[in-house]
Amino acid sequence: MTVVDVDSGSSSYSQIVGKVEMPKAGDELHHFGWNACSSALCPYAPHPHVERRYLVVPGLRSSRIHILDIKPDPRQPQIVKIIEPEEVFVRARYSRFHTIHCGPEGIYVSALGSPDGEGPGGVFLLDHDSFDVLGQWEMDRGPQYLAYDFWWHLGHDTMVTSEWGTPNMIENGLQPDLLLNSKYGHCIHFWDLRRRKHLQTIDLGTEYQLVLELRAAHDPTKAYGFVGVVISLKDLSSSIWLWYDDNGSWKIKKVIDIPAEPAEPALLPPLLQGFKAVPPLVSDINLSLDDRFLYVSCWGTGEMRLYDVSDPFSPKFTGSIHLGGIVRKTPHPKKPDQPLNGAPQMVEVSRDGQSRLLHQLSLPCLGRAVLSRRH
Questions:
Q1: Which of 141, 107, 101, 110 is closest to 125 using CA atoms?
Q2: C-alpha distance across the termini of the chain, in Å
Q3: What pTM was computed for the model?
Q4: Do 187 and 178 meet the contact criterion of CB atoms below 8 Å apart?
Q5: What CA–CA distance (Å, rounded) separates 258 from 275?
Q6: What DSSP assignment string belongs to 323-367?
Q7: pLDDT tens digits, one per residue of 254-288
Q8: What per-residue confidence (pLDDT) applies to 46?
Q9: Which helix H or strand E contains 167, and what residues bound it?
Q10: Could you give phi then psi for residue 307, rounded to 5 degrees?
Q11: DSSP 163
Q12: What is the pLDDT of residue 368?
């Protein structure tokens, strides 16, 4: 795991300035999260003495969790605790961990499934201070079976979860027969956050496969958010949907369509050659801190798209850049003669007021790019 200097005034800007050697190979480190944030100060479960100091780093494949201490030297984080998968298996009956959020009564961790690779997936809790595994979060899961991401509206006592697939459905790659038969996730779920009880399922339709990244409005008075859908079986498009509260009932509306791009079959993987098109494959989305702009990573076409979502019901496309892509392989401006494998995958908006966008070039190629936001 590496540490990159993102201080534009530093002599080591954009360079690797530190690293942590993980004890074992094969963890597949994916999403990280902090042990504490403003959500941990929720009025009904305050933790006034929790320090934002530790990075919680789960292994998506290994189900192992590493706790890194950042405080002594941010450039050289230290592993101070390792939670082995067997501990979570026994205490929470979950495996393959994905999203980390610090929450009102503990650190929330989403899991794709059970220890045997089947379902259900869900959420479990770690203690803020000791990082002990506290157990499953759900008291009444209702019909929910598949899991992936989660987010919440603390002021409305509501959590939202999305769907991908069980570990056995995804660990050997996307399975065409499951995809074409609509077996991957196509729902989002709403929960009573305090009572840990399932309230409502909204099915986007079996055409819409892999309902993944959730981004709720940062404004605590606003009860809406966006979710990205990777692919439509009808036309290979990707889409962004808006969930919102309508007088006490949760509803959802498709607000952005991103079409597939025509392509020569010879340039496409076998699964796509018959379609003669490359799908956008939206892999991540991120909402600016002022809730004005939505960034959308299209891994398939190698495009980072920007939308003005000041009116969340009517987003406006404002521009894009291209890097990589299955067919385009658009080179980085600093190496214009070198076709780029990979494409924008995970995306993060900086929280230092400088409006920088960081994204990861992932899957076949790993890297990072830092882009200035210009409107």
A1: 107
A2: 33
A3: 0.92
A4: no
A5: 16
A6: -B-SS--BPPTTSTTSPPPS-EEEEEE-SSSS-EEEEEE-TT---
A7: 999 999 999 999 999 888 888 899 999 999 999 99
A8: 63
A9: helix 167-170
A10: -125, 140
A11: B
A12: 33
Distance, in Å, from the CA atom of 145 to the CA atom of 249, rounded to the nearest integer, reads 22
Instruction: Quote the CA–CA distance of 224 and 245 in Å, as a whole number.
Output: 7
Q: Mean of the pLDDT values across residues 39-44? A: 68
Name the CA dihedral angle for 217, 221, 224, 227, rounded to a multiple of 10 degrees: 30
Task: Please identify which residue in the block is written with the tokens 């220890």.
Answer: 115
pLDDT for the residue numbered 39 = 73
Distances in Å between the Cα of 339 and the Cα atoms of 333, 344, 353, 363 are 11, 14, 33, 16
The SS3 of residue 125 is strand
pLDDT higher than threshold 60 for residue 123: yes
Answer whether residue 44 shows pLDDT above 70: no
Greatest pairwise CA separation for the chain in angstroms: 59
| Collapsed DSSP state (helix, strand, coil) of residue 115 | coil
Selection from 154, 160, 153 nearest residue 188 by Cα: 160
DSSP at 31: -
Neighbour-count burial for 77-88, b at 16+ CB within 10 Å, e otherwise: bebeeebebeeb
What pLDDT does residue 294 have? 96
- Decide if pLDDT at 128 tops 80: yes
